[in-house]
């Protein structure tokens, strides 16, 4: 199965939108410093969505043509199922998804695990890309996602130290 980068960038943008909704819901259910933290994380997701949108728009028309035939649209269906079912999936009300968490630390730990899943998803997708330029762009997405993990881990460490 080979993916075109157009589909991957669309999925990356959707992941960021889902993440933004997750953090906005977390902010609504929080108090004190956690409200500011989760709103900042939601803003970060928006910035990353804009970056991925820019990457998608930088592509030439030729790069938007699939490099392999996919008459049944399996690649796109696979991508959508991964995004809609695994990573920052928000079926229903995000507040209900967050209801099991007792602290900002628990939310951050969960978010870190989702970001790691996103990285694994993109690494797997990258290996299926046939064009070097597309693989390079996927590397940029992976780098952005790694920055999410670093930031979330720093925030978690701050909370655990009581620094918030």
What features would you highlight for this structure?
164 residues, Ferritin, mainly alpha, single chain, elongated
Spans of at least 5 consecutive residues with low confidence: none
CATH class: Mainly Alpha
Q: How many helix segments? A: 6
CATH architecture: Up-down Bundle
Number of domains: 1
Topology:
Layout: H1 5-28, H2 33-58, H3 74-85, H4 94-98, H5 104-128, H6 132-161
Helix pairs in contact: 1-2, 1-3, 1-6, 2-6, 5-6
Question: How does this structure look, described?
Answer:
The chain has 164 residues and is mainly α. The chain has a single domain (5-161), classed as Ferritin, core subunit, four-helix bundle (Ferritin, Up-down Bundle). 74% of the residues lie in helices and 0% in strands. The mean pLDDT is 79.
Provide a short characterization of the protein structure.
The protein is an all-alpha fold. The chain has 6 helices and no strands.
